[in-house]
Amino acid sequence: MPVVDYTMCENVLSCREVGRVDSGDARDYAGIVAEAAGVSLQPIVVFIDARDAEFITPDAAHVFVASAEVTDNVRCYVVVTHDLVLKQTSRILGVRNRRGNTHVFDSYEQALDFAWEQAQLQAATR
User: Fold this and answer.
1) pTM for this entry
2) In what order do the strands lie in the sheet containing 3-9?
3) How many of the other CB atoms lie within 10 Å of CB of 109?
4) What is the dihedral of CA 89, 96, 71, 52, to 10 degrees?
C-alpha cells in the first residue's frame, strides 16, 4: 500500500504514504497533485503523512522531484515522518526541487498546523 487516503479541504491536499513507495505509486500521486492544483483557483498546500512509510525507491524520488517542477500551483509541501531516513530523503527531495518549498516535521500536530497556516496565508493574499 503506497500513497493513500487523499482528501482535499480548503486548498490543503492531504495524503498518507504507507509501506514501500515505488515509481508507479509516485506517478499516481503526481497525477492527483497535478489535478488538484490544476482545478484550484489558489495555490494548494500538499500535506504528506509519511509516518507509516517504510521506503521511497530512487525511481519514486525522481518522479516526486520532476512532478514538483511542473506543478506551479503548489504553495508548499509539508511532510511529517518520524523515520530518520525518510526525513533525510524528504529534505533532499525538497532541496532538489528548485522551488525550495518542502517542509519536514517530526510532529503531526506541528505539520498540520503549519499546513493550515500556509493555506490561510495564501487565502489572505488573494
Assistant:
1) 0.92
2) 3-9, 12-21, 44-56, 74-80, 102-105
3) 9
4) 0
Q: Return the number of other C-beta atoms located less than 10 Å from residue 59's C-beta.
A: 14
pLDDT tens across 56-96, in order?
Answer: 999 999 999 988 887 789 999 999 999 999 999 999 998 88
Taking only Cα atoms into account, the Rg of the chain, rounded to an integer number of angstroms, comes to 13
Whose CA is closest to 44, among 1, 83, 3, 74?
A: 74
Average pLDDT over residues 117-121: 92
Taken in order 21, 36, 72, 82, the sign of the CA dihedral is negative
Q: Which amino acid is at 72?
A: D
- Cell of residue 35, nine digits: 489535478
C-alpha cell at 21: 513507495
What is residue 121's predicted lDDT score, i.e. its pLDDT? 85
Q: What is the pLDDT of residues 94-106, one digit of tens each?
A: 888 777 789 999 9
Q: How far apart are CA 118 and CA 124, in angstroms?
A: 10
Question: What is the C-alpha separation between 30 and 70, in angstroms, rounded?
Answer: 10
